[in-house]
Automatic annotation (TrEMBL):
Highest taxon of source: Eukaryota
Matching InterPro entries: TVP23-like (IPR008564)
GO-annotated cellular components: Golgi membrane
Organism encoding this protein: Carlito syrichta (Philippine tarsier)
Name of the protein this chain belongs to: Golgi apparatus membrane protein TVP23 homolog
Family: Belongs to the TVP23 family.
Gene that produces this protein: LOC103256075
């Protein structure tokens, strides 16, 4: 729908490799994918994990433990799906973990250097 796909590939050695792809944008393909459809796709992709988290808190606070297992699986599966598509969108060459670590490290350094200057 939006030109993104991801899957798991197992090679001859039995090692698992995740493949994240995004289609190259061209004028012909842009006609097939409208901006409204892409927004609906991303809205649904983001809204579903949020809805599962709401269900998780509902099950937790209403003490419905047997439903909590189902809801946790929903959160995990929808979160993995969201992660996969975001990884495709950002690019397969960039590692999201290193990007997050780099960002948090910069924020930590800014906070610590700012605190040292005020003391």
């Amino acid at each position: 729908m939006v030109g993104l796909r991801w899957w798991n590939h197992i090679d001859e050695d039995g090692k698992s490799h995740w493949v994240f792809e995004s289609r190259k944008a061209s004028s012909q393909e842009n006609k097939n994918i409208s901006e409204a459809e892409a927004r609906i796709f991303w809205l649904g992709l983001i809204a579903c994990p949020v809805l599962w988290v709401i269900f998780a808190f509902s099950a937790l606070f209403s003490f419905r433990v047997k439903w909590l297992a189902v809801v946790i699986m929903g959160v995990v599966l929808q979160g993995a799906n969201l992660y996969g598509y975001i990884r495709c969108k950002v690019g397969s060459r960039k590692n999201l973990t290193s990007m997050a670590t780099s960002y948090l490290g910069k924020q930590f350094l800014k906070q610590n250097t700012g605190d040292d200057q005020t003391s």
